[in-house]
Specification:
Two copies of one chain form a homodimer. The first copy, chain A, has 682 residues and is of the alpha+beta class. The first copy, chain A, has four domains: 312 residues, Thrombin, subunit H; 66 residues; 97 residues, no CATH class; 149 residues, no CATH class. In chain A, strands 2, 3, 4, 5, 6, 7, 8, 9, 10, 11 and 12 form an eleven-stranded antiparallel β-sheet that branches. In chain A, helix 6 crosses helix 20 and helix 14 crosses helix 20. At the A-B interface, helix 8, helix 9, helix 10 and helix 16 of A face helix 8, helix 9, helix 10 and helix 16 of B.
Chain lengths: 682, 682
């Protein structure tokens, strides 16, 4: 999730004038489009766009771009797959990948594609069961209801995925039903050097010059998926001021949160995360100096960390902007005044904000323990596998509605894909990640914390990490299957070092999770429902919900902006990339580009920006025109977009995309991929 | 500077009841001592204590503990020296160091000892020149006056050091005159494993078990300094509830700062510093995995970074405590109300707080450029030397009062000691530190910043770092001397890569410094003077000034405290260290201790805590009793002391010290250093 600095504007309710909004497809912004752009999409248009847009369950967006199941997304969304398919001497991340024919397309071990086939409001169904409950009974019943509804919806089919989604932080519950595809194969990826030209220094900046593209293909029962639902290719691609739509899966926004929640993010969560990410980054950067292999297999993780770091740093900056934060405080004050002025509302909702603040006060007290004991797999694939196996053995025997949500029936297919993934695991990388994470856990909880004593015993973090990696055979996938199928007895009998550690830590880990769920989450969810209802009461239900990694449409225009008194034009050209080229990473173009220079149209549009409202999770989203044709491929936001988590400033917040024409031009002239270029949109 | 989490108490003015205060020796807290402890120190007592206490100019405290110039300080205060005297196969940091006779004592390349011989109030002298000036003329004259007064005070002698110190952030200017000693030799250091037993996990915690001791000897004209001013050794050492004094050099506190200044620290400075330190830490930790040599020579720097990180993290936590910060806001509001209620005061001081806020608003705009362009040597000794040489060539031809303050006549001896230091420089360490720092500069300022383009050109940070280290001969001390003596022409003619880079960057670097000094520092200093005067007007001048790395006395009592409902006793024992021992770093006792176990008194007091008010810079301070005898050696504060930068909470803030008896016991029984044990206090 790449997309996601500085914003000083207030959250805007005026629907007619702003491009703000990430709209669910059952709440399509038809009115606003008509008022501002005199465009009224038909039901067919909306359905076609919905079915042509897809989600990568791991955290990205994409779209079908041919009748043969070809999927367009970002390079960085397929980076893990490309890295997992690489090995020593065959580094597809560096060299790129191109399948000349279907047989050369290689399955990604961990990619799942979801196509949204239905949305149903299940709020009434859930509230019928929860509305009279309080405390942990409320939370338990809420989760039980979700698991039940999802199970019933999927009806035993692993080809169907059903997720109950909490909208407006508790105001509504909607059931999202997807077609699920787990056979997804790599078709094309350019070299990282051009996919991420400019690297971290240019990330979240504009102007840009990135071919952040990968093409995947969805297979159904061993054959390329034949589908009618795909986007055609625009002949000219995006033009200035054109109306554009982005249909994708923004991961999370925090625009409707209360002041207490924002303070928690500002004063606790973000600072902790940033410090952890920064130290991890330093560690990984230096780890990569060990050699070419280490550089190769640590690149994906390092990118993820640098990307998160930059996004969160920008988000924190927005929260630290005193004017902006004061506007949030004022907004809440006004809402509460309106609620308190109405006796019925006051009785029903009046105490919700204080309850939310109390929940976060409790959360602060257990935040670190919850993060370092339960919410972590210590950066280790092996420990992650062990923890999942141990938990599965404990959870799966329970009835569906009593399990932790990630072990519910509806969650099993994705859990198995990840658990039995053939992605390679590297011993030295495991040791470093574990050593680092154990050290941080000890630092945060203290050397004398009972959990840390149980974790480390008399070993140092490095001694433990080395012993664990040496003592574990969990790289062996049949062994994982055996342990999964063998349940509690198999886990109890296993002498595998990782399994033993995960089993030893499980009771403490469950204990802090229960404390969090019963004492904190319960309060947050109950207060969240009340606050959402209060917002509906005062403002009506025409506002869009915060992002929830569900399909949303945003509309906007291709437009430049002003930065430090200078005009930033909306388009860059392929020629611009050659002007920015040096011989040193990350500003070195790949050899294929240097070789093709004379053939390329230097004036061809390369990247561009628009006013569409997007955030992390939107990576890989198609940008389409009124005719539902691809005009671009979203891959980033500008630095000003990083405050977008908390509010949208239409004057400077920009989405950044690869122009559709640059994709065509370079597939043909740099990559000799005429066969793919010809398939696009057909 | 090691000494420096959580504080929720208000700054307390009540002089009679609290132990709070870091008192200058010309403002000794005689009244408070009499009122609370019925102890009235004589002038002789105060003078003797002053002259027996010393400062390590690099950032620590210490004391004379024998008539032969023996100096007691912390191991971590001499860590750099011990590391600099080590080499491959002879690692005194790991093995410890013991000189059997004077001839075996080895000179530390960069330690300067200062003994305070006089304090003089020069406020009137300075104000006579500056009081009618405004803007940058004020600031320039202020600095010129300081340089003139210092030069006159030292009167051409390098054996005298004179510093004009700004107290109360501008309320007073005092001239501190020191005897300067640059021939300081290492006598004794234990193994790091016991000096820093528990390592970073136990740092800033109590109970503790650290022999954080080193012994140095001051030489005068080639011979051990003979002195009457030294502390005798207490027969029993510190006892519970005993009145104790700490006489040392607290580096910096921020208790008198305005809200705007605290907000800048909280929202800008601390977060930036913490993130930078965290990433550096990750990088260095992994760099140490390259091999035993890298581990050896990166240990000191890593310790410094981890120590700063932990101290700042605790400091930020105090600022993020909403109750505490509200108390600061309220305190300022009350002061301003009192000022505004008096028309004369209002006219004179009323606008100072708004001016201070405006200064910090301007500072925020140039903060990053100032940090990354002027206030950095990119973590590189070689670049630091090059930058100093280039600057010296530009500054030294100017009259004393026109120079940058660090090139004033009074500053030359310390500058030369550092510039011509024989401390070893390691190529790979230089390359890593430079690569890291260049990468961060580019990340912060942006790849397209004119300064970054000038710095990197078409090179990557690593390519530039490697070229610089390969292309520089500045390890050669005679070359440094030649370039220093050769001045501008020598610099212009030099083809040394580091010199050329420093020379190329000098104009941008000077430019941002001038902008900072003229536009920010000037405003801060002028507003600071007014605010200090306003505080004097309202509260009188009986408050102690914020710490300024000048000699201060604090008084207190040996006392435990309550933590999470548990009583923390004030003493630990030598036996406790053996109980905490494991075979893994940082909880592994050194072999010498394990071997000596049967001889050691397990019940002997090892570390203890007291209510003395200390902070970073106090490391190495003697803790003495009413008879001016050593009862302990300050080396740390507890975790609750980390908010001490902003306020003092007498209920839980504790100073942490090595007990004097543990020093005697282990010198004799672990280190067979009877000759030193016998010298102590004699």
């Amino acid at each position: 999730m790449k997309l996601s600095l500085l914003i000083a504007s207030v959250f805007i309710f005026n629907l007619a004038t702003a491009e703000e909004g990430m709209w669910p497809f059952n709440q399509f912004p038809t009115e606003q489009l008509k008022a501002k752009y005199q465009f009224t999409p038909t039901k067919e248009w909306i359905d076609h766009v919905r079915l042509s847009s897809i989600r990568l369950a791991g955290g990205c967006s994409g779209s079908f771009v041919s009748s043969q199941g070809l999927v367009m997304t970002n390079h960085h969304c397929a980076h893990s797959c490309i890295e997992q398919l690489s090995k020593s001497g065959k580094d597809y991340v560096a060299s790129g990948f191109l399948a000349k024919k279907h047989e050369d397309e290689v399955k990604c071990p961990e990619i799942e594609v979801n196509q949204l086939i239905d949305i149903k409001d299940v709020t009434a169904q859930i509230k019928a069961k929860t509305s009279k409950l309080k405390g942990k009974e409320f939370n338990e019943q809420l989760k039980a209801s979700m698991s039940e509804i999802e199970k019933e919806c999927a009806d035993g089919s692993e080809r169907i995925r059903c997720d109950v989604v909490t909208l407006y932080h508790g105001g509504q519950y909607h059931l999202y039903k997807y077609q699920r595809y787990q056979d997804v194969r790599l078709v094309f990826a350019p070299e990282l050097a051009i996919a991420f030209f400019g690297g971290d220094p240019d990330n979240f900046n504009f102007p840009r010059y990135n071919l952040d593209l990968s093409l995947l293909r969805v297979y159904d029962q061993g054959k390329p998926l034949v589908t009618k639902n795909f986007f055609k290719w625009s002949a000219d691609g995006a033009t200035e001021n054109e109306l554009t739509f982005v249909t994708g899966h923004p991961g999370k926004t925090s625009r409707l949160l209360t002041v207490a929640e924002l303070e928690f993010l500002r004063d606790v969560r973000m600072i902790n995360d940033l410090i952890y990410l920064a130290e991890t980054r330093g560690n990984l950067t230096q780890f990569q100096q060990r050699g070419a292999e280490q550089k190769r297999y640590a690149t994906g993780r390092l990118f993820g960390i640098e990307n998160s770091f930059k996004a969160k740093r920008g988000g924190l900056q927005a929260l630290l902007d005193q004017t902006f934060f004061a506007s949030k405080v004022n907004e809440e004050k006004q809402l509460r005044q309106k609620i308190n002025a109405n006796p019925k509302w006051k009785k029903e909702f009046g105490s919700a904000w204080d309850n939310m603040a109390a929940a976060y006060k409790d959360y602060r007290n257990i935040f670190e323990a919850h993060e370092f004991i339960e919410r972590t797999i210590y950066g280790s694939r092996l420990f992650g596998i062990a923890k999942t196996l141990v938990r599965a053995a404990g959870e799966l025997p329970k009835p569906n509605e009593k399990r932790f949500r990630e072990f519910s029936e509806a969650s099993i297919p994705q859990l198995k894909q990840s658990l039995f993934s053939e992605a390679p695991i590297y011993d030295d990388f495991e040791v470093e990640n574990l050593t680092f994470a154990f050290t941080k856990a000890r630092e945060t909880l203290g050397a004398d914390h009972p959990y840390i004593k149980k974790l480390l015993g008399v070993k140092s973090p490095r001694q433990l990490a080395e012993a664990l990696v040496k003592g574990s055979k969990l790289k062996d996938i049949p062994l994982r299957k055996k342990l999964f199928d063998g349940g509690e007895k198999a886990i109890a009998d296993s002498q595998d070092a990782m399994i033993r550690l995960a089993a030893t830590l499980d009771s403490e880990s469950r204990s802090i999770r229960t404390k969090y769920e019963d004492e904190v989450e319960t309060q947050i969810k109950q207060a969240g429902e009340k606050i959402a209802q209060a917002q509906f009461a005062v403002y009506g239900s025409k506002r869009y919900p915060d992002a929830t990694f569900t399909l949303r449409a945003s509309f906007g225009q291709v437009k430049g902006y002003q930065q430090k008194g200078q005009e930033v034009k909306p388009f860059t050209t392929i020629g611009g990339a050659f002007e920015r080229h040096t011989d040193a990473e990350p500003f070195a173009l790949p050899k294929t580009w240097l070789d093709a220079k004379s053939k390329l149209n230097m004036n061809e549009k390369f990247n561009f920006c628009s006013t569409n409202d997007i955030i992390g999770g939107n990576s890989g989203s198609p940008m389409i025109n009124k005719n539902a044709e691809v005009v671009g491929l979203i891959f980033d936001g500008n630095i000003q977009s990083l405050g977008g988590d908390y509010g949208f400033d239409a004057s400077v917040n920009r989405a950044v995309a690869v122009h559709s024409s640059a994709i065509m031009e370079t597939l043909k002239k740099v990559y000799q991929a005429e066969h793919i270029a010809n398939e696009l949109g057909k």
